[in-house]
Amino acid sequence: MTARILQRQKMGLIVAGALVLLLSLLLATPAGAEPPGQETEKYCLSCHSDPNLSMTLPNGEILSLFISQDVISHSVHSPLGIECEACHTDITTYPHPTVTFETRRELSRTYYLACQKCHPGNYEKTLDSMHADVAADGNMDAPVCTDCHGAHDVGKPDEPRALISETCSKCHGDIVEIYKQSVHGAALIEEGNPDVPTCTDCHGVHNIQDPRTADFRVQSPEMCAECHANQELMSKYGLSSDVYSIYKHSWHGVDLTVYKARWPTIWHDSAVCTDCHGTHDIFKTDDPKSKVNPNNLLMTCQECHPGVGPNWTDAWTGHNEISFERTPFLFYVESFYSSFTPFVLWACVVYVALQVIRSIVDRVRSSLP
Ligand code: HEC
Ligand code: HEC
Ligand code: HEC
Ligand code: HEC
Ligand code: HEC
Ligand code: HEC
Ligand code: HEC
Ligand code: HEC
Ligand code: HEC
Question: Is the distance from CB of 220 to CB of 272 less than 8 angstroms?
């Protein structure tokens, strides 16, 4: 009897224990739990939120190890639950593994590889870039992901669009200064105009190639044509959209087409758009600074046609069809030939026809008795 009561009490205890266990399990994993990673973030920041935490690198540089909670939570990754351990896969607890880098720069070039896990496409592209080439040749200043995007403060890289040239200016400040003065740069930086090109429209982003090769040069008119042959876009600015098609029929354009088809890797000097207009320093054609402004045009031609006189620029028939308003002399010459040539041809036809009739008449006459 007492044994049975004891048995029941035991059962009761087991059931109660099981219930308590179940309840505590339920409470421990409530619905709407914290995003994955928050636990680790809290753990890591328990030390790294100390503004004075730092370490001395093997080369003597002092590296601040302070990670601001505020900065990290404004990163594009944070709302997606991508936290410390997603990138720092080798660090899970303290003490950390022994470091393999000697300098601040080596640290960046080691840790940026974490980005490739989730952005393999962009990573692949960066390997095929001018920046990777110069790094392979030993220039450690060439940028990696974090130089352009940051690591803990990654934002949208093209908002606002002017941010793109800002990013490049960290290392190409001189070019960006020139670009800002140009018709394209001023429109973007001062007016926020999205129709004009910024660095990445002409150079690409992750797979930037060397722009000083023959190959890049012969392709470059197409780069400008993306916009300047677009009638809808150009009419917004009152600009001709025939500049490309007429360039293609000009001496320079035809010459370049031949080279492009047969010897794309051989450097050829025939003028491309940027030879006459400039590259990062393109101005409106009536701007005194423009290379094609009437006051500067002869000098621009002389860069490749040394010694030619002031009449040389008359060889420039422009990007426009020949018209009475723009080029009256050429208009007359062309009108003359376009009416005179058919006239001469018709005169010949009439002359030959008359000759034939004449010889028939003569023959008929001579056969008459
Ligand atoms: C107990 C305090 C503490 C905790 C917790 C901690 N760290 Fe550290 N961390 C340090 C100290 C101290 C250093 C300086 C170098 C050293 O002592 O290893 C450091 C260095 C680092 C470094 C730079 C040097 C290196 O090893 O690459 C990174 C990156 C880092 N911690 C990331 C993390 C991450 C990620 C977490 C969370 C998983 C974390 N830490 C948790 C104290 C801590
Ligand atoms: C999106 C990937 C990513 C996340 C998320 C991330 N880190 Fe980093 N972390 C990096 C990279 C890349 C570097 C190297 C930074 C550089 O190139 O300057 C780095 C560097 C560090 C350093 C060295 C000091 C410094 O500022 O360069 C510490 C410490 C560190 N991280 C801790 C943390 C902690 C703690 C967290 C979470 C709160 C965290 N990281 C989250 C990618 C990340
Ligand atoms: C654990 C995966 C993961 C890692 C590691 C990671 N990212 Fe991301 N990243 C994402 C996801 C997911 C998005 C949001 C979706 C998208 O836009 O591709 C994103 C967005 C971005 C964006 C914003 C894209 C936009 O236009 O909105 C940039 C820039 C970026 N990551 C750069 C980096 C860099 C630099 C690193 C290394 C320091 C890195 N990411 C590491 C997953 C990751
Ligand atoms: C030389 C600077 C630079 C480097 C290096 C760089 N980026 Fe970018 N990245 C940019 C710029 C600028 C944009 C915005 C491009 C645009 O809108 O034209 C961008 C766009 C992005 C985007 C959003 C658009 C997209 O393509 O999905 C992601 C994600 C990104 N980069 C990740 C990376 C990663 C990962 C690396 C390293 C493997 C990297 N970037 C290296 C400058 C850079
Ligand atoms: C962290 C520094 C850094 C950043 C940021 C950077 N670059 Fe570079 N870039 C370099 C270095 C270094 C070289 C190699 C210079 C050399 O050896 O002539 C280079 C080379 C180039 C070249 C090849 C021509 C040359 O001078 O060799 C182009 C084009 C280029 N960068 C464009 C860009 C663009 C566009 C951006 C912005 C999206 C950018 N870079 C951002 C450092 C940077
Ligand atoms: C309209 C197209 C275009 C835009 C926009 C543009 N570039 Fe270029 N860039 C070129 C061309 C074409 C060349 C090659 C010209 C030459 O042979 O010098 C070049 C050359 C370069 C070079 C290497 C040669 C040099 O002059 O030192 C760098 C670096 C460069 N650009 C960076 C940039 C940066 C940074 C920006 C943004 C501020 C930018 N580019 C905007 C077309 C452009
Ligand atoms: C992404 C589109 C885009 C690309 C690519 C582009 N442009 Fe432009 N360009 C414009 C727009 C839009 C304007 C008008 C800006 C304004 O007036 O505010 C302009 C203006 C100009 C002007 C001034 C015309 C005038 O007299 O008002 C010249 C010259 C010019 N571009 C030449 C070039 C050359 C050469 C290239 C190639 C190296 C090029 N552009 C590439 C969009 C582009
Ligand atoms: C970047 C160099 C360059 C610039 C700038 C340049 N040209 Fe040329 N031009 C050439 C080359 C190369 C040829 C082809 C020569 C040949 O094949 O005989 C050529 C051919 C010509 C020809 C026909 C052939 C001849 O030699 O009579 C004319 C006309 C001409 N250019 C006019 C001009 C005018 C006008 C300008 C200024 C508005 C100008 N060029 C600017 C490089 C240039
Ligand atoms: C041989 C020199 C030369 C070459 C090559 C050249 N241009 Fe021009 N461009 C000029 C001159 C000179 C003017 C001003 C007079 C005119 O409009 O004909 C001009 C005017 C322009 C204008 C202003 C047009 C307008 O409606 O006011 C644009 C845009 C332009 N060029 C773009 C280009 C593009 C794009 C290319 C390459 C496909 C190119 N140019 C090639 C010399 C050149």
Answer: yes
